[in-house]
Amino acid sequence: MKLPELRIGQLVAKVPVMQGGMAIRLSTARLAAAVASQGGIGLIAASGMTFDELRYEIRLARSLTKGIIGINAMVAAREFAGLVKTAIEEGIDLVVAGAGFSRDMFGLGHESGTPIVPIVSSVKLAKISQKLGAAAIVVEGKEAGGHLGTDLSMREIIPDICKAVNIPVIAAGGVMNGADIVDVLKLGASGVQMGTRFAASEESNAAPALKEFYLKAKPEDVVLIDSPVGLPGRAVRNPFAARLLAGDAPAPTTCDACLKHCKRNFCIIRALIRAQQGDVESGLVFTGEYIHKIEEILPVKEIFERLLREAEAVN
């Protein structure tokens, strides 16, 4: 099957693939630009960045590609509105928002003409998003990495949501190859979001030790932890995740107040940063459910070439 274009407002992606916005600092300018240069949509993970860092990453991405560049930001982050405003000021192409839901972001998008794309996991939120002016929605199922809004498979919820709205639906969770993309498009989606496959790319900002850790993961290593954000999170079992599951992870001794509401069972920002920097023992390694299917670290260009070949091989 020849893959169709993905249209979001006035934006046209030649390949219907959006790269997941993976924080903290896995999805930076280099990865986003590489994806955009291949005809997809590249996302910079804004959560955990200062406003100046975000400006720098957006400008760097712009210098590396003429493709579509967006940001992904956690609604749960205390600085969510400021990150969105900063990105809009820098002329970002679109804003993707997850880990919560904000009605205010649609007003910001309307004022600037910036497409707002919320991440949802239910028909109800999909309808609300469309009513509030969403340019598209990302529909995330239980197979996705990081924070989850449902325990249902993406393939279960996509058909009903596609029937309920008439804006582009981008399916997320468990999409690992070209055949997966074709399957999801046949369910009614307009495109897909892929995170885990790009986390394990050459252009990912993950430390080499973290990328090697990805390759060692087995199906039984993937677990659900209780995030301070107030949502379950899908991660790879390591000593830190094991302590979280046992309920004896060290509580924060200091707090940067990075979240609007925090359960304070552990500091998620610092745990994610440790993993991003290569500490796979005491860091939190977020991942999608099917990380075990990744067998090698590839450049983004090669990943896209394989996706297109795999999709074209499907009737």
- Helix and strand succession? EEEHEHEHEHEHEEHEHEHHEEHHH
Strand content: 15-25%
The total strand number stands at 13
Our Rg estimate from Cα atoms comes to 18 Å
Shape: globular
Name the CATH homologous superfamily of the largest domain.
Aldolase class I
End-to-end C-alpha gap: 6 Å
Mean pLDDT: 95
Q: Regarding CATH, which class of the largest domain?
A: Alpha Beta
Assembly category: single chain
What structural class is derived from the secondary structure elements?
alpha/beta
Biggest sheet strand order reads 3-11-10-8-7-6-5-4
- Count of domains: 2
CATH architecture of the largest domain: Alpha-Beta Barrel
Low-pLDDT residue intervals, each spanning 5 or more residues: none
Provide an overview of this structure.
It is built from 12 helices and 13 strands. The N and C termini lie close together (6 Å). An 8-stranded parallel beta sheet has the order 3-11-10-8-7-6-5-4. Strands 9-13-12 form a 3-stranded antiparallel beta sheet, with helices on one face. The longest helix has 14 residues. With 315 residues, it is of the alpha/beta class.
Jot down its keywords.
globular; eight-stranded parallel β-sheet; 315 residues; three-stranded antiparallel β-sheet; alpha/beta
